User: Fold this.
Amino acid sequence: MESLPASRIRRGMQILATAPRPPVGLTPNEVIHQQGRLAVRYYAPTGARRKTPVVLVPSLINRAYILDLEPGRSLVQALAAAGHPTYLVDWGVPQEENGGEDVAFTLNLLRRSIDRACRHAGAPGAILFGYCMGGTLAAMLTALGSARVVALVTLAAPVRFSEGGRFASFVTSLDTTTAFPAEALVPVSTMKPAFQMLDPVGNVSKHLAIEEASHDPARLVRVLARERWLEENVPLPGAFASEFVREGYQRDGLWNETWRVGGETVRLGAIGVPTLVVSCARDFITPVAAAAPLAERVGPHARHVELDTGHIGVVVGAEGPRRFYPLLDGFFREVAS
Assistant:
């Protein structure tokens, strides 16, 4: 006779394989800028409007709708409801012709996106928020200098890559030249197994969670929305992936101040705007020790907050609307009009 946990896992697997995925990214928005695959989405304030726009920068590896996963658990919805003109950088899906795009190219895309958001908002500057890899890029751009950035927030963003935990140990000895061929894309089929190896028992717990959620329709929709996001990975430009792994994880280039972009060294200590660094105590993708040191390097106008949640749950779990969204709203009101 099959054991109870085994039968529940099997049922969770069946539900995941057959259940339709719910719609995502439902908050009304307007695309105000496009460049190739990239789009900047504008979410109009529904509360008393504030002047300074907020530009949200997600990771390049996953779909941008993680910041608008479902009503009630949507960062863009929460910020717009609090009166902030909110702009989301949607990196889109790279095609074969994008394989040669490196970090410098990506930062130029980001710089232009911030400029377009400020123009659209009629504001001289914006608050820049970056999540995971997007937070690393946001910090790098701010360090290199951008008159448009008036404040910075990073969430679960690695800057001290030598403390990157499981992922750092996984890529330390990787030959980036052969793993990420120049001018080509790094396919999802290459990246996905690597992330699954970070949490070897994740599939078991995932299927158990799906089975448990299946007894509550609303909860099941929430779980399946998250699964949809996890399933819809996107490839990375090979040049970007090679540089990010080599200069970040293998050489700890941000912390050691050896990472050069466009001929200029990135120095995190050059960040001169109010900065909020948020890390997550249960994050095994970007451990606290990899994210928190940004506040130390930036100095007295930076502060660090550690939340008792995980890498994904911080934005789409219960901790999001309960603590994280209000934390951001409070910081934004402190540093800008």
